[in-house]
Write a structure and sequence with these properties.
Blueprint: H1 3-24, E1 34-41, E2 50-57, H2 59-68, E3 75-77, H3 79-96, H4 104-138, H5 140-146, H6 160-170, H7 182-212, E4 219-220, E5 224-225, H8 227-246, H9 255-298
Helix pairs in contact: 3-4, 3-9, 4-5, 6-7, 8-9
Length: about 300
């Protein structure tokens, strides 16, 4: 047996032994979910119409309720949520196993996550876009009869254009005539680029110019000259101008122009470093959340008695 295979197999065996011991021989157990049944009225005018929702509860509340009344129905063990916790925990470990090397478990988790995500957003897009914004505009009565009774819209035949373009997009899946899908694709890319360009000009380009036009000397009625705000404005203006000089290639970067361009490089490197650090901190926060989920919601190591409701 290869050394890598031996190490991975040993880790799996040790992990399985730990999970079995934690599950069956620990005082509190692990990875279980409990819910509390709450009655909610659906209509204030008719109190007889209501339904039951299930809020997340703790193991302590469940055992306390069962001890007082073994036949109580308010606190219950939730099999579906328990399965969800275990699936999420195992898939998290499968994804983290890529840190060791590429393996079948990682590929399974990757494929399932990508497939489920694509299917989920397809269903969301169908019910939030196609049904109300396309079919609801073409045949409001039909959509009200089976899908959205509260839909308030009128028939607009102009929406036949996006319907035809959508069918043309699907033509790419046909064995012949896939070139037909290029026409709606070109239209979508062109209109999206134009709309985004206008939004970018208003939100980013003009906004940056507007925010750069500032007073280099800041004064306040109470204290007079404000040194730190003035220094901040001076640094912003110098950073913007020096960075613009770096991208001005009509003049050779020598002498004073070269020094100003180098100053612009320093400003850009500081900006890129801060942006990269912010991105890394965001990823570290996501990792910390997953570790907390594994240790608390799944293994119950942070809160062994499961007395608090996890995030």
């Amino acid at each position: 047996m290869k050394r890598e295979t031996l190490i991975s197999t040993s880790l799996l065996v040790v992990g399985a032994i730990f999970l079995i011991g934690r599950m069956f021989f620990s005082e509190h157990g692990m990875g279980k979910a409990y819910v509390r049944a709450v009655e909610v009225k659906s209509s204030e005018t008719d109190p007889e119409i209501n339904w039951t929702i299930y809020e997340k509860a703790t193991q302590r509340k469940y055992h306390e309720a069962v001890t007082i009344d073994p036949d109580q129905k308010e606190y219950q063990f939730s099999l579906s949520r328990t399965l969800g916790i275990w699936i999420a925990a195992l898939f998290t470990l499968f994804i983290l196993s890529f840190l060791y090397k590429d393996n079948p478990l990682y590929k399974i988790a990757e494929s399932v996550v990508v497939g489920v995500s694509a299917a989920y957003w397809m269903v969301v897009g169908f019910w939030t876009t196609i049904v109300p914004n396309l079919l609801g505009k073409l045949s409001p009565g039909w959509i009200k009869s089976w899908a959205m009774p509260g839909l308030k819209t009128e028939a607009e035949l102009i929406y036949l254009i996006p319907l035809v373009m959508g069918v043309m997009l699907l033509w790419r899946l046909a064995p012949k005539g896939s070139w037909i899908s290029r026409w709606p694709l070109a239209f979508i890319i062109g209109t999206t680029a134009g709309i985004r360009l206008i939004g970018f000009l208003h939100a980013d380009f003009l906004g940056q110019i507007r925010n750069t036009i500032m007073s280099l000397v800041v004064t306040t009625p109470d204290t007079g000259f404000d040194f730190w705000d003035s220094m901040k404005n001076v640094v912003v203006v110098i950073g913007v101008l020096s960075t613009i000089v770096y991208f001005f290639f009509s003049i050779e970067h020598k002498g004073y122009v070269g020094k100003i361009a180098k100053l612009g490089i320093w400003f850009m490197m500081i900006t890129f470093g801060a942006a990269f650090g912010y991105t890394v901190m965001g990823r570290i926060a996501l990792l910390a959340i997953r570790i907390e989920f594994l240790l608390n919601d799944w293994l119950w190591l942070i809160d062994p008695a499961n007395t608090r409701i996890g995030m």
